[in-house]
Design goal:
alpha/beta; Arc Repressor Mutant, subunit A; Aspartate Aminotransferase, domain 1; Aspartate Aminotransferase, domain 2; globular; pyridoxal phosphate; PLP-dependent aminotransferase family protein; transcription
Amino acid sequence: MLALITEAVDDRSARGIAAAVGRLVSAGDLPAGARLPTVRDVARSLGVSPTTVSEAWRSLTRAGAIQTRGRSGSFVATPVAPRQSWRFTQMGASPPGRLDLSTGIPDHDLLPDLSDALKRIGDGRLTTSYLDEPVLPALETVLRDRWPYPAERLTVVDGALDALDRIIGAVVRFGDRVVVENPAFPPLLDLLQTVGATVIGVPIDDAGMRPDKLHGVLAEFPTAAVFLQPRAHNPAGVSMTPDRAAALAAILAEFPDVVAVEDDHAGDIATAAPVSLGRQLPGRTVHVASFSKSHGPDLRLAAIGGPAGIVTAVADRRLLGPGWSSRLLQGVLLDLLTDPAAGVQVAAARDAYAERRAALLTRLRERGVTATAADGINLWMAVDDQQIALVSLAARGIAVAPGAPFCVTPLASDHVRVTAGLVADGFDDLADALASAAILDSRGSGVRARPHPRGLR
């Protein structure tokens, strides 16, 4: 193998060595699982310093071509098994219905009106150079005033998922272990799969991720990052309490190499007050604030704030792609965040979502159905059999999202996610249909009431 590598290298820089070995891996000449020669042996054979070979090996490790196993040496990485399908696509597995509650999107009628904001933008001359700062200065001032802790740097990207994608690119490498809540948001799990991360799910309760379980995982496994939803957890609707955030931060303080990433996707429609581990760990917390559900999905805007090293890496990488998020849209968002009338509309939406969640949740509990919907726009409902529930509801013209794609590891019972925020009336009829689908009698047919264990599992 040493002779094969030596013969393939024609450029003896670190980049050239990495490229040559990468080509050998791609061609199958270096098979998966094969142990590579030591850095010193390769350096001696090529007539370069061990530092040069070490740099090449680091590049190959970042690219996922090889894996280093400490004193055991470096090995050609085993290719990631082809995915069966994205979890994200499975969320829409239910047949389309007359009442589609599978989407997890806000009610369009509760979004603030953009008409006046668009008029006030004027002629839209907000960009003078491709090298302008990525965030409008006035918008950055407003964002910093709203931020749950002092962030070293802020930038704006194209929505919460774009933010998560770019943060993952900055902090997670092939083979890294990362911790997420179980259940978790399926697109996050898809994004972590694409970079070859090993995902570990930690259970939640009604105050957020369980500290004891998180400590157990971090004590056992070297971990790169912990991903959290601080408010209106999707799908369970849980919002993290300040005490829970402090407890989680205290645990992370014991593990200085772990980064906390917070996805505050619900934003201003969340009933709970903003909370963040950044209040205790500002140097290791990256917070994402999205405005899609509160101010409009088509704004496609979310802010990232946190340690300068991570946020700068995200902003610099974007210069090789979109460069910046539309400053026209940033101008609209700035107007909405500072317009009292828009603030009133968002507050009214927040109250309406809370009323809708409570109305549906109360009726389901009256029918013996276990469900949670403490915050946000979703309701997480336990069912005896996911597939039967989906089919039963589809027959009634109702679509909901299956629970399986949300789960890193299976829960004690099947679940479905219902976008309760889209339900403005007809709560009794909908609750009847959901209860009938959720609870089966001994013959496998739906019944309307049977005691069911309560609580998150």
